[in-house]
Design brief:
Two copies of one chain form a homodimer. Helix content of chain A is 43%, strand content 23%. Chain A is of the alpha+beta class. Chain A folds into two domains: 1-62, Orthogonal Bundle (Arc Repressor Mutant, subunit A); 65-126, Ferric-uptake regulator, C-terminal dimerisarion domain (Dna Ligase, domain 1), CATH 3.30.1490.190. In chain A, the strands form two sheets. Chain A has a three-stranded mixed beta sheet with strand order 4-3-5. The first copy, chain A, has a two-stranded antiparallel sheet with strand order 1-2. The radius of gyration of chain A is 17 Å and the shape is globular. At the A-B interface, strand 3, helix 4 and strand 5 of A face strand 3, helix 4 and strand 5 of B. Strand 5 of chain A pairs antiparallel with strand 5 (104-115) of chain B. Chain A binds a DNA duplex through helix 3.
Amino acid sequence: MQDEVLDVLRERSGPMSAYDVLGQLRQDKLNLAPPTIYRALSSLTNRGKVHRLESLNAFVACQYDDHEHAWIMSICDSCGAVNEIVSPELLNALSGVASESGFLSTRHVIEIYGQCAACRAIEAKA
Amino acid sequence: MQDEVLDVLRERSGPMSAYDVLGQLRQDKLNLAPPTIYRALSSLTNRGKVHRLESLNAFVACQYDDHEHAWIMSICDSCGAVNEIVSPELLNALSGVASESGFLSTRHVIEIYGQCAACRAIEAKA
DNA sequence: AAGCTTTCTGTTATAACATCACGTTAATGG
DNA sequence: CCATTAACGTGATGTTATAACAGAAAGCTT
């Protein structure tokens, strides 16, 4: 089940809600229900194969198959494209800022909204 | 209505869901319905009086009454306390990292999970 | 004051996201 | 073979958020 969910997410460039995934997989498997999808998504996110976009209640396949890492997501307001940014320095800086008030960080949620390079180019032409 | 919602959020130190707020206010005003609360919360967040915690689907009163600013939230896994961190430098750094791939940032969602100073102190004693 | 617009609120219903609780099946290993 | 565990199926429910439309209050214009 995890593999099937991951395949669906990989076929799609953008984020999908759990119910989007459910809709796709129901084309083959009728009777598929939300808990099944959520279980698979939960395992996949734990394994780092899928990331959850907290501010969208949606999921995307990880762009980097091979590694353990923390991530920063950029989300284009125009086209919805999501991109994964890896920057340990920035995450360290963030932990540093938090630690100024004695806070010990364990997990970061960073989601940046704006306009991607492609959409900026289109808009510049128009 | 905005004032009443804001008062409720200020009385509470931690985050509240829209329905938590609704529950509080229903003690006085029966018949209060979700859209009323969501409208008030929407105006308050637009005005910067309230911040939304995207990863919790919850809301907190802004800790800084007086100003326009972007914010970073720290959230304690142990006690649930939320703290607002202001760091324009870090936000600039974040925009900078995103711009390396041509992305133009307009809004940042930054939520850090971990353990606050108070909870760390308690744990250290034990 | 009458009529108009604007803004906020009330109300019902429903959409969208997520989990609980329990039962069944299938593989694992003693 | 049987106990255990892990994954999945199933139905119901819980939680978060919005759509669509109606009504009331406040301010403006004439």
